[in-house]
Each structure stands twice: as C-alpha cells, then as structure tokens.
Amino acid sequence: MTIRRVTPLLFALLLGAIATPAIGFELRVCADPNNLPFSNDRLHGFENRIASVLAREMGTTVRYTWWAQRRGFVRNTLKAGLCDVVLGVPAGLESVLATRPYYRSTYVWVSRRSREAPVTSFDDPRLARKKIGVQLVGDDYANTPPAHALMRRGLIGNVVGFTLYGDYSKPNPPARILEAVAAGEVDVALVWGPLAGYFASRSGGALRIVPAAPPADLPDFPFAFDIAMGVRRGDKDFKTRLDLALLRRRAEIDRILDSYGVPRVRTAPAPRADVAGRAAGADVAARGLSNSLHQPPSATVRTDAIAVSALEPGARMPGIVHKNPLEGNPFAISEGQRLYDWYNCSGCHFRGGGGIGPPLMDEFWIYGGNPANIYTTIVEGRPNGMPAFRGKIPDYQLWQIVAYVQSMRADKPIASPPGPREDHLQASEGKESR
C-alpha cells in the first residue's frame, strides 16, 4: 500500500476544490423584497450586503429569488429549487441545514429618549402603568418570549399587539412597532434586536434600546438567538463552502452588522447534558420564526415550565397564582374558545354541556372549580376518561382554555361543593370526570 504525502501545494488544491465554485455557479439567494433592515429588492438590507461579500469570496455573483417571508416561504423557494440559500435563519431551524452562526442577537427594550431611566427588567413596577408594544405570532400556537414573560406577570392588559407579518402593502412592515414608540402610541416596546437597532440608529437619537435580560422564572425561554444561513438538508458541500466564506469574511460581516446597528451578544456555551433536554424544548426555530424568518424569534411553551400536581377538591395549586392571569380577558377567551375546538374538548363537552363527559357550566365540580383546579384537571387528567394533556398543550394556551371555561359559567356560582353529591356521582359514573 502506498501512502502519499500531502504537500502544502496539494492541500491548497484540495481546499480550492471545496471553496471554488464550478463554472457557471451563482449564489442563488432566497430573500424578501420588502423587509428592511434585512433585505429588499433595491439591495439596501444588511443581508443583501452580506450576500455580496460571500459571492465575491466565492468568485461568483448573486442572483435573487424574491418572495415575501410569509407562511410557506422555505417550501416555496429553497425546497422548490428556485434558490439555494436563505440568509438570517435561526441556527436550530429544522427545515434547513444551517451554516455556522455569523451573529447572535437578542430582544431589546425600545423607548423614547427622556430623562426617565429606561426599563431594563420585566419586574419593573413602572410597567403596570405603561402601554407595552409586543409583536405577536397569533394563530401559530407559539409566541415571542417577551409575550410570555409579560403574561406571567399579569401585564397582558397593558400589551398593544403588533402582528409579526404587518401590512405588506407598506414599506418594511415589521417597522410599525418602532413607529408606534416614536409616535407615543406605546410607552415601551420589546423588539427583536436587529430590527430595533436599525431603526433606532436612524431615529436621530429619539429612540434608545436596552437588551432585555431573560427573566429568571422562564429558564426554558431564550431571549438571544444564534443566526445562520440555511441550505437544503442534502447540500452539505455547499454548506461547507459557505462556512469557509463566513470564516474568511468574518471581520467584514461584523462591520456591516455594526453599520446597521445590529446589537450582538456573546454566543452561549453549549448546554450541559443535564439541561440539554430543556434547551431543546426552548426551540429557537419555533413556528413563528420559521414562517417569517426575519421576524422576532418565538419559543414554544412547555407545560412543565410550571410545576403542577394532583389536587384535592378546593385546594390551591402550589407555585401558581390562584387567579387565572387571563380571566375575563376578551382576547384570551376568544382564543380559548378556538383552542377548545382545536384540541377536541367539544368531543366530550360539546359547547360546555354534557355528553361523553360531564357539563362544564353547572356548579358541581368534583375536583374543584377554581382556575388552578381546572388547569390541573387538563394537565394531569382525571379517572374515568379525562386524558392528561401534560406536554401537549403550551402553558399559555392552557390558561386561555381555562379562561374560556370560566366564561361559560360566569353567571353561576364558582365554588366547589363541600363533598360530591351522591346523585351527581351516580350521574357521572362511566363518564370522564373533570
């Protein structure tokens, strides 16, 4: 057997074979034509400039496939073969093969510049008196981490929601939330860093931004995300070329990000083995971001983010406020009604009445009728038919369903009987218990 020595010249040739594209190669980029500061069809976005840098490094030119980053963006562009790379994807996005991250950013607080100290914490008591702008995912069964942090603190009534997607007939739809802060329509807003940094840096000093520190009570919700590029999952050689180009042009890419005011934070260390599962549950590529890649990252809620246990009738849930934070909230009740049908609660409790399961609108509640008891019943299940939904329904959706169930009997006493009535138990025998 002959072992050939790899000379420096041979190594250079091998590296060139990886890094140099074939004749006729183009850097075919999937991008949004109306999404500053990320991209637009006039090539004014920082992703446009980064694509040009990479193309020069790879000895080629850029060709764009323009498509609004709405639902189905990856499916209709990258996976359809119309283009080969999407810039600005979360490093954990499952629908693509991601390159090495080229920056890491975070959510920020945005406010008008004034003599008042800026808000820096979700526990700032001033938030109770302020209108808070937040971008919301809506019907994707996920929401941004800031939305969950505010909900946990009972501040949902202060939130002014801005859709992730915005009005696409106007320039740069996601920028509406920044315009609302500048106009005084909201007092403070929680915005994805690159979006906020760009418009704040061009506000003439009218806006200021402060990184949003993750609240301690939401350990499974990241507020900072590694951002990479995505190629088709089988394009490993192409990914390697992009990785090499990103390494070689790192300094130039950093200068571009600086010029657009993109706030960056250090890359997080790899999670320890004992917390890897929880880190995976945070899902940096949650559905809200995968459907609109450059919008604020969202995180899927885990029901075990709040410890729950089986309760005796009338007991209070340990570690959880006794009052539903969404009780009486019209939006939450409306969402709860939709989710009630989505998760097929109507199959057993049709329109809140009886059927396979007992009715939800009378005053008899075997396991207690307060919000914590209802929550636990859904999470833990009950004997004789009620299934457990632990790990299947996000925590904020659980409270929305509870709010809807509470609204069904708003005109009836909400109290647990001192003991189950014999006739009620007989009527419920063989049916699911609440």
What does this structure look like?
This protein is α/β, with parallel strands linked by helices. 30% of the residues lie in helices and 14% in strands. The chain has helices at residues 8-19, 46-57, 73-76, 145-152, 176-183, 193-201, 236-248, 250-259, 276-282, 287-291, 330-342, 371-380, 395-408, 422-428, and strands at residues 27-31, 34-35, 39-40, 62-66, 85-90, 97-98, 103-112, 132-136, 159-163, 188-192, 207-211, 224-231. Helix 4 links the parallel strand 8 and strand 9. The chain is globular and about 75 Å long.
Ordered list of secondary-structure elements with their pairings:
Layout: H1 8-19, E1 27-31, E2 34-35, E3 39-40, H2 46-57, E4 62-66, H3 73-76, E5 85-90, E6 97-98, E7 103-112, E8 132-136, H4 145-152, E9 159-163, H5 176-183, E10 188-192, H6 193-201, E11 207-211, E12 224-231, H7 236-248, H8 250-259, H9 276-282, H10 287-291, H11 330-342, H12 371-380, H13 395-408, H14 422-428
Parallel strand pairs: 1-4, 1-5, 8-9, 8-10
Antiparallel strand pairs: 2-3, 5-12, 6-12, 7-10, 7-11, 7-12
Helix pairs in contact: 2-8, 11-13, 12-13
Count of runs of 4 or more consecutive helical residues:
14
Radius of gyration computed on alpha carbons: 26 Å
Average pLDDT score:
75
Structural class: alpha/beta
